[in-house]
Write a sequence for this structure.
């Protein structure tokens, strides 16, 4: 298993990295969490900015995307790499990007089980629980650049 020093967070190019990004998302969301494939691949990816976590061999092991409306989504890390801070590094990348671009806020739909993770980065719950792809979620927001 590579050390965290061997894992890098990089901007991804949708056209070049599409297969690797989809492979990670399919494994996590479709196979592990039973999200229907037609909900997972929603046609929005070409309009998004993507980030990837890669191991020492250049394999994509985690990903996320930022929609044009400052909505963070599709954050996931392969199961064998979880618990090592990779998800936090992906999220911090988006926070840094948003601050650099002077975005007023970031918004996301968090699975209820992941609320504490996002709260550690300053996100606050701003909605009641709702179902998305058969999983309980809540909308969260991080106010930036006030």
């Amino acid at each position: 298993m590579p050390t965290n020093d061997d894992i890098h967070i990089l901007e991804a190019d949708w056209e070049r990295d599409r297969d690797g990004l989809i492979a990670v998302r399919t494994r996590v969301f479709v196979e592990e969490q039973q999200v229907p494939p037609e909900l997972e691949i929603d046609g929005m990816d070409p309009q998004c900015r993507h980030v990837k976590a890669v191991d020492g061999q250049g394999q994509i092991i985690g990903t996320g995307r930022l929609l044009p409306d400052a909505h963070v989504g599709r954050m996931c890390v392969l199961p064998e790499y979880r618990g090592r801070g990779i998800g936090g590094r992906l999220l911090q990348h988006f926070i840094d990007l948003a601050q650099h671009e002077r975005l007023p806020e970031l918004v996301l739909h968090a699975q209820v089980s992941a609320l504490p993770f996002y709260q550690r980065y300053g996100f606050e719950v701003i909605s009641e629980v709702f179902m998305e792809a058969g999983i309980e979620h809540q909308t969260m927001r991080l106010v930036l650049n006030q």
About this structure: Strands lie at 8-12, 49-54, 60-66, 71-77, 105-111, 124-125, 130-132, 135-143. The chain has a mean pLDDT of 94. The radius of gyration is 15 Å. The longest helix spans residues 14-32.
